[in-house]
Every structure is written in C-alpha cells, then in structure tokens.
Amino acid sequence: MTEKLPFEIQEIINALAEKGHAAYLVGGCVRDRLLGFVPTDYDLCTSATPDEMKLCFAGMKVVETGIKHGTLTVVNRRTACEVTTFRTEKGYTDKRRPDQVFFTTRIEEDLSRRDFTMNAMAYAPGRADGGLIDLFGGQQDLAAGVIRTVGDPGERFEEDPLRILRALRFAAKLDFIIEEKTYAAMHAHKALLAHIAAERVTAELIGLVMGKAAQRVTGQMGSILSCILAKPAVVHDSLAKDPCVRLAAFYRQSKDDIAGLRLSKSMHRTITALFSYEAPLPKNQTEALFLLHEMGLEQAVQLCQFREDAGALAAVAAAKESGVPYAVRHLAVNGHDLLQAGVPELAVGQVLEKVLALVIEGKLENQKESLLGYILQEPLSGCS
Ligand code: ATP
Ligand code: MG
C-alpha cells in the first residue's frame, strides 16, 4: 500500500473530509493496492448522502450515475471516480440489482454487504493508524491467495448467485483458490446461476476466460460452469489473450449456448465467424492471402489463434508482411479505371475479384499496366 494515490482522487477525499464526512477507498482498488497493482479505477464510499456529496464537489463535474443507490460519478480534472454513500442492501428478486438499499452512516455495515473478504476492505489515506479497515480478515486471505465470502456463504450466494461466478472470475484473474466452505456453498447453489441476467453473466465470464489461471479454473469448475453452458471446455493458458478467441474456446463444445450471452455486435459476429469456418487453415502464403481476403486480418489471426495453429498464424503474418494485395482496395486499379477501360459497370466488381485472385496466385503483377493489359485483352472471359 505504498503507492501514492493519484492526487485527483486524494482531492475528492479531501473535499468530503473538509465538510466533515468520512470517506474511504473501498473494494477492488484497496485489494489491488494491497496486492501491489496500480488499480484501474478507484471507488470511494462515504458517510455523506448524495445531496450532501453534491455540496462538496465545487469545480468538479458530477454525474448522477446511480443516485437511487447512492452513487455519483465525480470527475476531477480528467479522472472519474464513483462515490457511493455507505449502504446496506436487501433482496435481489430480479437478479440484477438489490430491491432496496438503505443508507447508513456506519462503514462497518457497508463492508459487510460486500462479497468476499478481499473486496470488503476500506482505506482512508493519511491516517496515523494506517487507515485500513479490515473487519473480515481480508488481508490474511489476500496474503494466502484465498477467496472467502463475507458471512455465511450459503446466504450470500442465495442473496445474489452472481457471486458464484464472481468467485470463479477472481480465482482465474488472481490465481487464487476458493475456501472450502465457500466452494461447498457455490456447488450447493449453482442451479441459481440459471436466473442471472445475461449481461452480468457475460461480464464475469469474459473476466474468467481472460484470467491468468483460466485453464485451472475452467478445468476444475466444469460442474458449476455447466449451469451456464451445457459443456464448458477448458480454456488453455496458452491461448491468445483475446476475449473473442477465449470465449469461443470456452464455448467450442456448446456453440449454440453462446446465444445466452449478451455480447456486443462485433464480438458476436467474430465468434460466429470462428465457429462457422470449417475449412482447413492455410499452410502457405497463397492460402493465407485467400484467408485474409475472406476474413480480413483481425479475424484471420483470431481464427488461427482459436484453432491454436501456429503454422497458419505464421503464414498469415508472412502473407500480411509480403505486401501482396489481399483486398480489392490494395489493387493498382480501381473501379473507375475499369469503367474507363470499357468494362461494363455491372461486371466491375467481378473483374476486380478475378484480377485479385490472379495477383494472389502470382499469375499477374500488381501494376496498373499489367492489370489493365490483362483486362483489355479478355475483359470478361475469366468472370463467368
Ligand atoms: P475489478 O477490479 O475486477 O473491477 P472489483 O472488486 O472492483 O474488481 P467490481 O465489480 O467493480 O469489482 O465491484 C466493486 C466492489 O463492489 C467489489 O470489490 C465488492 O466490494 C462490491 N461488489 C460488487 N459486486 C458485488 C456483488 N454482486 N455482491 C457483493 N458485493 C459486490
Ligand atoms: Mg471495479
């Protein structure tokens, strides 16, 4: 915890403290700092209500992101930070968010609603006593690499079964083990996972498959994960760190189940393409150029990674490096040139494709004269 806080965050804490409110870093950022990582984002919690908070942040931008739940996003210079009133929660009937939240002035109550001991610590910078509030043994569990619920695991998973997946996500991300009773309760309550909102499951699963211990966790936790997809596959640690490649690998034995996730359009398109490409992968530069033509560079690379085919990946890289055209837009002629050369408008696209194929095969040089020479000599002959 030696890392200095960004001064933008310190200023937000100071702004609350100046008006007499308690303010702490909380959750993931405290965990990550104790682990020696620089947090990607900072969450604060405070005794101030949202209305009281608004009076503190003069000169900063305040966005009411989740005001009913006590959360404001404060933007100080360029740094954004979520600030949430200490709260307790009740009920998760829609399996998305708590039915009711109650504001409290006691940080202890706020910490006890949190999922795991390592996520239930708060830190007030600059205090003589070190400023860390750790009521549930979070530091000890962090040091031992253990994931343990705050309170009774069965009750906590019943309250919000997403926590079962969060445990797996953190186990994969941090390469931690899951404490015995916590694990037993995850097992006992795994069927509840079927009711969780797709967008919450999707976010956690992406985190899980991207984790450094994804292979161990997907290998050991198949029986829990099978409540989400029928046949979860092992995600090898050697796989590229690409969410599409890793999700596709995880779903490769249950392809249709991918429809149960809430993916962005582009991720959905990529994963569908990875699943539907069944032909053998390129073994040489010419085949690789045709694959690049068909899928584009990004997807061609992802396909080779998904199939874990290093030879094909090398062929694709070499094809790209060669500078040989693999798209019509790389040709030394364009549609306009063809029209001028007398190619009928309706045939232009087809002729360009034909010419590209000949260039890829090395039968034509990608130079305007040779391409036009070929086209003028037999304008439509090769295009039937
Ligand atoms: P990451 O660094 O991966 O974002 P995080 O711990 O910050 O990890 P978030 O999902 O951002 O995870 O949640 C922030 C904090 O809110 C957690 O550390 C935890 O204290 C609490 N929290 C989040 N989701 C839950 C949940 N479903 N049940 C209980 N507490 C939760
Ligand atoms: Mg976070």
List keywords for this structure.
alpha+beta, 7-stranded mixed β-sheet, two-stranded antiparallel sheet, 18 helices, 45% helix, elongated, binds adenosine-5'-triphosphate, binds magnesium ion
How would you describe the overall organization of this protein?
This protein has about 375 residues and is an alpha+beta fold. It has helices spanning about 5-20, 30-35, 50-55, 105-110, 140-145, 155-160, 160-175, 180-190, 200-210, 215-220, 220-225, 245-250, 265-275, 285-305, 310-320, 335-340, 350-360, 370-375, and strands spanning about 25, 45, 60-65, 70-75, 80-85, 85-90, 100-105, 120-125, 130-135, 145, 175-180. A seven-stranded mixed β-sheet has the order 3-4-5-2-1-8-9. Strands 6-7 form a two-stranded antiparallel sheet. Strand 4 (about 70-75) and strand 5 form a beta hairpin. The N and C termini lie far apart (about 70 Å). Magnesium ion binds near residues 28 and 41. The site of adenosine-5'-triphosphate (ATP) has 11 residues, from helix 7.
- Quote the average pLDDT: 94
**What's the number of helices?**
18
Q: Could you name the ranges where pLDDT drops below 50 across 5 or more consecutive residues? A: none
Helical percentage = 40-55%
Could you give the distance between the termini?
70 Å
- The geometry reads as elongated
How is the main sheet built?
Answer: 7 strands, mixed
- Which structural class do the helices and strands define? alpha+beta
Order of strands across the main sheet: 3-4-5-2-1-8-9
Chemical compounds bound to the protein: adenosine-5'-triphosphate, magnesium ion
The helix-strand sequence is: HEHEHEEEEEHEEHEHHEHHHHHHHHHHH
Count of distinct strands? 11
Task: Note the beta-strand portion.
Answer: 5-15%
Give me the Rg, rounded: 28 Å
